[in-house]
Amino acid sequence: MLDGFINNEITDSLKDYIKKRVTTPIWGTFFVFWLIFHWEFVFTIFFVNEDLILARTGYLKNDYLRDVFFDVHNWYFWFSWAMPIVLTGLSIWVLPRWLFIPAFKKDEEYKTAKRRIRISEQRKLEEEMVRLEGEKVRLGEESVKQLKLVSQKTEEEKKIMKLDPSLGWLEEYNQFRSSIYFNKFKIIIQSIYEYSGNIHVFRSLDNTPFFSIPKDILAFAHSSELININPKTEKIDLTDKGKFFVKKYSFDQNK
């Protein structure tokens, strides 16, 4: 029982040792290169039938493999074993030092540079956002100031207009000049100064109307506070604003 236990320990240790050796990068790399130079040998072992070899060469499979692939007198035998060793050494010791490590270093430097650029651009973006936010606040403050100034100006204009309403009337009159009622305003003037402000004037003989103020200009003048209407007498009279309009209108007509 003890001998069996010892044998198992030795066997397991040997297996672990072989496994570690075989799975190291050196042996794995060597096996790949060896397989490249000996692929025909491996292919013949696993995929070529012995009868086919015997029929074509007259050799048994083992003899064929020995004479063809392990002919120590053939230079290729030594070459096919030396090259995997050389290439393994190059790929494990030489290439990493002269190619892979510098390439890895350059790649890391490239990644670091990209991260720096990204961080720099993010900082610029954050600074721009802060600047825009400050600009927004500044514009908001200026807008508030502007609104206050406009409000103050409006209040001042209202005070001035209370003292002198004609300032506001002049602006309204200038707008009135471009309206459709401007040319009809002479009918209001005619009613005031020719027919004593009567809205309708009738003939004395047959009591038929020969003068009437159209409803549209009458409504406009009344709603614009240019005239007052007495519904009982059906007469109109000018307000102060209306007199101002008549004065400006007469001046424009006599230019």
Description of the molecule:
The protein is mainly alpha-helical and 255 residues long. It has 2 domains: 2-123, no CATH class; 166-253. The chain is built from 10 helices and 4 strands. The protein has helices at residues 2-22, 25-37, 39-47, 50-57, 61-69, 75-163, 166-176, 185-194, 215-223, 240-253; strands at 200-202, 209-212, 227-230, 235-238. It has a two-stranded antiparallel sheet. The protein has a two-stranded antiparallel sheet with strand order 3-4. The longest helix is centred in the middle third of the chain and has 89 residues, at 75-163.
Percentage of residues in strands: 5-15%
Rg for CA atoms: 57 Å
Q: What's the helical proportion of residues?
A: over 70%
| Domain module tally | 2
Query: What order do the strands of the largest sheet run in, or round the barrel if closed?
Result: 1-2
The total strand number stands at: 4
Q: Provide the structure class.
A: mainly alpha
Can you tell me the residue ranges where pLDDT is under 50 for at least 5 consecutive residues? Answer: 1-6
Biggest sheet layout: 2 strands, antiparallel
Strand/helix succession: HHHHHHHHEEHEEH
What would you call the shape? rod-shaped
Q: Mean pLDDT score, rounded?
A: 81
Count of helical regions: 10
Distance between the termini: 140 Å
Transmembrane segments: 26-48, 75-95
Keywords: Membrane, Transmembrane, Transmembrane helix
